[in-house]
Design brief:
Bound molecules: iron/sulfur cluster
CATH class of the largest domain: Alpha Beta
Number of domains: 2
Number of helices: 12
Number of strands: 12
């Protein structure tokens, strides 16, 4: 059964399961060590467990993802496609030596993780939103992306950005459980400061997430410095406008030690006016946030274009001249890469699914 893959359980839940089976708590720690430290692929490989317990566990997969394809070369961005138990697909993207955008050391690989199948937010520049929303990923489907990519790429990942398909804060319960497992000493032990959640701006969920105890980083896809510009490309702004979003982010800042990042995709003639840069600088200074500028990546079927590089550089200088830390990214990723979701869309279209 999918919902009982071993990666769906916290330590407490696994201890409870062992207790039900008449096993001592330390058996749970043996299982967790086998999964997350030795990275075994099945219960049969947990050779420090008694045979009878291994047999009992045999009905539970370690995690629920099946590799279904890959694109990209080994020295650049690699996109992994995974098949879910219900025949849906998700993408996870391994980004090489990431620029120090999310506090990551530059020699470390970053994994861009999905949190939903499709997305309901309908951002106008995004391939993931094109086919609409199908469902939330479960906690183990989120955790498993790290386990599965590490196994396929044969390397450890120490930085995660939740910028793949989906709006992470619209799946808050499963996201928080996954973050707990990813961070726990009995789990994958990925430092909270090495995990960045990217949100399109669900203000009430930002407030809720501010109470989550781990010092996770937060990035906000702003993409417009005024409501008229932002609403044109991000329908979420109709529900929670910039003022409401700013209030929720101010609360986040009060409760967290982590700095915020404002993401801003530059789209020619849509949001790249220099007046937007001046207003964006104001928002960033108010939140003491840094800004990542991302020249738009063309998405098949969408009409937007990226501005000339020189203009992007001028936009950036408007920010830095006002004292804002601003980087201009060349390529890569989802928001990192507006093309995220394209591999999955293609696969589902081939199989006659498009919703
Ligand atoms: S940019 Fe992110 S939030 Fe917006 S539609 Fe795409 S996946 Fe969803």
């Amino acid at each position: 059964m999918h919902d009982t893959s071993l990666a769906s359980l916290t330590r407490d839940e696994l201890v409870a399961r062992m207790k039900d089976w008449g096993e001592p708590a330390y058996r749970a720690d043996q299982v967790l060590a086998a999964m997350y430290k030795r990275r075994v692929a099945s219960a049969q490989e947990m050779t420090d467990l008694p045979l009878a317990l291994r047999d009992k566990l045999a009905g539970f997969p370690v995690h629920p993802l099946a590799p279904a394809g890959e694109s990209g070369s080994t020295d650049t961005t690699r996109k992994f496609l995974f098949r879910l138990h219900d025949g849906r697909y998700i993408e996870t993207v391994l980004i090489p030596a990431s620029p120090a955008l999310y506090g990551s050391a530059s020699d470390r690989r970053t994994l861009c993780v999905s949190t939903q199948v499709g997305c309901a937010m309908d951002c106008k520049f995004c391939a993931s939103g094109l086919a609409g929303f199908t469902r939330n990923l479960t906690a183990d489907e989120i955790v498993a992306q790290v386990l599965a990519v590490e196994a396929l790429a044969d390397e450890r990942v120490q930085n995660l950005v939740f910028m793949g398909m989906g709006e992470p804060l619209a799946n808050l319960r499963n996201l928080e459980k996954a973050l707990t497992i990813l961070n726990a000493p009995w789990g994958l032990e990925i430092g909270a400061r090495h995990m960045t959640i990217s949100t399109s701006g669900l203000a009430p969920a930002v407030r809720k997430f501010a109470a989550f105890p781990l010092q996770i980083r937060l990035a906000i896809s702003l993409h417009g410095a005024t409501d008229d510009v932002r609403s044109r490309i991000m329908p979420v702004n109709e529900k929670w406008n910039i003022a409401t979003l700013m209030e929720s982010l101010a609360e986040w800042r009060r409760r967290k030690k982590q700095h915020l990042t404002l993401e801003y995709i530059l789209i020619r003639g849509v949001n790249d006016d220099l007046e937007q840069a001046r207003l964006l600088a104001g928002h960033a200074l108010e939140l003491r946030a840094k800004v990542n500028l991302i020249p738009y990546n063309t998405v098949e079927g969408l009409a937007w274009e990226r501005p000339p590089f020189r203009h992007c550089e001028t936009f950036r200088r408007v920010l830095t001249s006002r004292g804002v830390t601003a980087t201009l990214r060349r390529e890569k990723g989802h928001d990192i890469n507006a093309a995220c979701g394209q591999l999955r869309l293609k696969k589902e279209q081939e199989e006659g699914r498009n919703s």
